[in-house]
Amino acid sequence: MHPAFSVLFLTTLIGAGQGLFLALFSVEAYGELGLVPAPGSDFFAIGSLLSLVLLGLGLFASFFHLGRPERAWRTATKWRTSWLSREVIVLPAFMGVVFLYGLAHWLQFNPPLGVLPGDNFVLLTVLLGILGTLLAFALFVSTAMIYAAVKFLQEWHSPLTVVNYTLLGAASGFTLATALAAWADTGLVPFLAGWAIILTLLGLASRIASLVRNARIQPKSTLQTAIGVKHPAIQQKSQGFMGGSFNTREFFHHRSPGFLRAMKWIFLISAFAIPTLLLALAMAMTVDPTNVLIAAFVIQYLGLLAERWFFFAQANHPQNLYYQSVS
Amino acid sequence: MTQLALVIDLNVCVGCQACVTSCKEWNTSGDAGPLVDMNPYGADPTGTFFNRVQTFEVGEFPNTETVHFPKSCLHCEEPPCVPVCPTGASYKRKEDGIVLVDYDKCIGCKYCSWACPYGVREVDAQRRVMTKCTLCVDRIYDQNLPEWDRKPACVRACPTNARLYGDIHDPNSVVSQAIRENGGYQLMPEWGTKPANHYLPRRKTRITVREDELERADNPLKIDSQLPKPDRDEPSLDDVTSW
Fold it and tell me: Residue B163 contacts by C-beta under 8 Å, 6 or more apart in sequence?
């Protein structure tokens, strides 16, 4: 498939935004339980704002994928059958919850909405956080299922796609949250960096699993089934036109196999290896690790862009069987 | 229920591209606006077509056969492109099974084209929406056309009658008979899309002629050949002369 930059930015930016929100709420939940030092409410407000900016940029990028962006509102209508429609509904809903979550923290408006047994208050921000967490996971699933649901693209049609989208988004979000925690000087760096390393390594494991799976894929469709001629030796002599067409542009990456291999190593190193090392370094540092952590996030984000590019480029659409020879 | 479809006879198709140009001509002149042609005379021409004729070589030289293969939307009975559409612009008509795009609802997200294994949907770069074969829905129901002309433009154009058109759910239709009697098959059956369009395979057409069929077996005395030759002036009709 042709990797469109609009979609690369959409999926990586909202993934980081969702991960950042998950990190914020993890801090709040752990803080409520007294397991980590509770940061000030500014930390949550700024973090929510950052998450909103990422989500908004992703949403903005997605419009460049559409031929008719002015009709985008129509996409919310077919949520019964289309994962794309579900994503379009869940993304604004999630952004709304993140906004309310950040607003409640910024205004320090956090009335207890009830009392649980053991004198535990049900706080507004905790409820919003739980709702946001559910929506963040729903968004990960919706985004990934857009790709995993297309059975013709066998490289995508796997539960690993959903796992990868979730883990990689969460990993980049936690890395960003670590940088934010270091900048805000909250004392949460070891906690968040630890989780960021765990998520990055889990993401590496599942991404390698999908690389191994995709390397062994046997294409279901062949030239024989494509034109229905049962002969082992078939060659295309003409695809019916000599100029370009949508079919020759949209479904191929137009790069060499060497470029593809290089991209694979770039994302394996840049999205997983370097961020893990930098996060570990930040945990061990005695001076302010903010710059190291910002570098870790930027490198990881660029690596995830390469990862998403590779994700698209590696998928081989069966329609390409019909477009193998110009004349 | 009706399921209109094409049946394409690969045994007859000669790859003349008449259906391609006829399709383009009809659909570029329709209500929905022209199908784009960019740089038609430039270095890198590109354009939208609903129908292509491709050519494949089967076998190894010198034992090869050339297969001309027309390809357009197959109007699947289980169209995978329809449920993925987020706006409902991509739909399958209940009354006749034609898969269509509502050009006023389409947002041009291209998702349906990803979900089609046959690569028969094309985004029109000027209209910025997904376009595809309509089975000439604006032609087959047009009351202003004489009844024999209410067929898809590609079918009307085919000089060798390689394209048959009709209802594959009617067992007596010309397409159902062709599928049944000539080994009609579907493309990429492994995906379960149940394409409505069928293809008829290449078939060897041989006539076995024995010697006794050339000579009259019931004419042992060769009486026929003994009849006198007529003069050159005389009429040479079969009824009048012996040859």
Answer: B6, B7, B8, B9, B19, B70, B152, B154, B155
Q: Select from A82, A67, A240, A249 the least CA-distant residue to B130.
A: A67
All residues of chain B having their beta carbon less than 8 Å from the beta carbon of residue A1 are 114
Name the residue facing B107 among A1, A74, A240 (closest C-beta).
A74
Which conformational region is residue A225 in: left (phi greater than 0), alpha (psi within -120 to 50 degrees), or beta? Answer: alpha
DSSP A318: G
Q: What torsion, rounded to 10 degrees, do the Cα atoms B183, B185, B189, B194 define?
A: -120
How far does B173 lie from chain A, in Å, by closest CA? 23
What is the side-by-side strand order in the sheet with B51-60?
A234-238, B51-60, B63-72
How would you write the pLDDT of chain B (243 residues) with one tens digit per residue?
899 999 999 999 999 999 999 999 999 998 888 999 999 899 889 999 999 999 999 999 999 999 999 999 999 999 999 999 999 999 999 999 999 999 999 999 999 999 999 999 999 999 999 999 999 999 999 999 999 999 999 999 999 999 999 999 999 999 999 999 999 999 999 999 999 999 999 998 888 887 766 666 666 566 666 556 666 676 665 555 544
Q: Rounded to a whole number, what is the distance in Å from the CA of B192 to chain A's nearest CA? A: 11
Residues in chain A with CB shorter than 8 Å from the CB of B106 are 67-68, 71
Q: Could you tell me if B186 lies within 8 Å of chain A, comparing CB atoms?
A: yes
Do the Cβ atoms of B149 and B157 come closer than 8 Å?
A: no
CATH number of B4-200: 3.30.70.20
Q: Given an 8 Å threshold on Cβ–Cβ distance, is B88 in contact with A243?
A: no
- The top-level CATH class assigned to A5-225+251-322 is mainly alpha
Helix, coil or strand: residue A296:
helix
Residues of chain A contacting residue B48, judged by C-beta atoms under 8 Å apart? 245-246
- For chain B, say whether A218 makes contact (Cβ under 8 Å): no
- For chain B, what are the domain ranges? 4-200
Residue reference for tokens 């053991």: A118
Of A225, A233, A250, the CB nearest to B188: A225
Judged by a CB distance cut-off of 8 A, whether residue A110 touches chain B is: no
A120/B contact by beta carbon, under 8 A: no
Return d(Cα A157, Cα A147) in angstroms, integer: 7
Question: Which of A65, A319, A323, A324 to mutate: most B Cβ within 10 Å?
Answer: A319
Q: Give the Cα separation of A170 and B123 in Å (integer).
A: 34
Q: State whether residue B132 sits within 8 Å of chain A by CB.
A: no
Which amino acid is present at A325? S
| Torsion region of A34: left, alpha or beta (phi above 0 gives left; psi -120 to 50 gives alpha) | left
* CA distances in angstroms from A29 to A33, A125, A182, B219, B239, listed in the order given: 6, 10, 19, 107, 106
Instruction: Output the CA angle B97-B100-B103, nearest 5 degrees.
Output: 160
